[in-house]
Structures are given as C-alpha cells and as structure tokens.
Amino acid sequence: MTSTNWAESTKTAISGFLVLGAPELGMLIAVGILGKSGFQFLKHILFSSLSRIVFPDRVGPARHRIDVFMFVAPLVFGWAQPYVASLYPESGIQQPIYAGAGDIVFFLSLFVLGGEFWEKLRALFVRD
User: Fold this and answer.
1) What is the pLDDT of residues 54-97, one digit of tens each?
2) CB 86 within 8 A of CB 48
3) Under DSSP, is residue 8 helix (H, G, I), strand (E, B) or coil?
4) Which of 42, 68, 102, 125 has the CB geometry, 3.0–4.6 Å to 74, for a possible disulfide?
5) Dihedral-angle region of residue 55 (phi above 0 means left; psi in -120 to 50 means alpha; beta otherwise)
6) What is the pLDDT of residues 22-42, one digit of tens each?
7) What are the extents of the domains in the chain?
8) How far is the C-alpha of 27 from the C-alpha of 103, rounded, in Å?
9) Of 57, 71, 79, 60, which Cα lies nearest the Cα of 110?
C-alpha cells in the first residue's frame, strides 16, 4: 500500500478496511458457508493445535531458564535505564527503540513460559 501512487485518503481507507473490516467480513462469510457448528469445529482445530505449541502444560528446564531471562531482563533494563542514561548520556540508551524491544520481549515471555507459569502468576493475586 505504501509504495503505490494512490491518494493518501484511498490508502488510508483501504488500510483501515484491511485492518478493521476484512477479518470480520471473512469470519462472517466462513460462518455463512460452514454454518455455526462447522465454524466452531474449524476454530477448535486451529486454536487447540496452536495452544499446545504456545501454551504447553510443562516446559523443559532449558526453555524455562531462557524464558525467565526473557521475563526478568526487560524489567531490570527498564528499571536501570534512567540511571544509566543519566550517567552516560552519550550511550544512546534512552532511545525509544530499546523500550519498545523490551516491551515486546516481556510480552512474548508471557506466552512462551507455558501453562504452569500462568497458574503461578494467577496464584499471586488469589488470597486463599
């Protein structure tokens, strides 16, 4: 879209439709063709195979160590960044790209750590 010579308003309208309208329209057409039960079956097959990969019940020790590092490193970096940037202003550590990358790594670590981690995280907020 960005490399076309179309008017900016046309590019904006088409991009907005592709982001906001096309997925919903595709799901509506799929429900119309497959019926509700067929669509639910298809969704169950796709998401159950994906959830086994992304949210395994147990993860191995190597994956756990890597993922805990992915979880803790952005927190430590975010805490230390203002202090390091004030001590070494020429380091360029205060660039927003580092903050964005840390947020992405932190977000991905929540999905990679597995099902047991989610239960432990939930248990932190349960009183009984």
Assistant:
1) 666 666 788 778 888 888 888 888 888 878 777 777 766 666 77
2) no
3) helix
4) 102
5) beta
6) 777 777 777 777 777 877 787
7) 1-54, 61-123
8) 30
9) 71
